[in-house]
Please model this.
Amino acid sequence: MEARRLFRLDNEVLAFRFTATMSDRVGAEPQERLSDPGRLEIWLHAAGLSVPDVSPTELQDALTLREAIYRAGLAVAATQRPNPGDAAILNGAAAAGQPRPGLENGLAVWHLSKEAPVPDALGVLAADAIQILGGPDRSRIKACEGPGCAGLFLDTSRGTNRRWCSMNTCGNRVKKARLADR
Ligand SMILES: [Zn+2]
Model:
């Protein structure tokens, strides 16, 4: 199955793209898109982190990490510090992975070990989250105002006035709702 049909892959920040695998978070029916280990394998492949397979335990570890990233991101979006427990989950995942960066054909890639490719991939996601949540752009982290969404995004607009995780989805939904109200 195609990753694009299963997931929303348009978030520029890898760690936030990962948190978007649970969508409509504050809506009536949150959508869990990582509903089985095979789905995580497809998502990782689309993120440039191909692994041969994913065990049920590894899926659980991934979901634990994802939710810690999401909670920490919401805290930062509200100009608060991430909860120490969530920070510990991120730090633990980052320390457990041993991915190696590489430059190949002019592009940055990650090499995962044969022994523990999934922990390595989760390490990449955790490190990305740490860099963005604790880095110089952290004041640009926002939660989407789209109906039911609350997805995390990095507002890189010049006036830092972006309100939606994506113009194609939430931005459009809001626009359509406004037109319908008229
Ligand atoms: Zn949104």
Remarks:
- Strands lie at 22-23, 31-32, 100-104, 107-111, 141-143, 152-154.
- The domain at 3-140 is CATH 1.10.3300.10 (Jann2411-like fold).
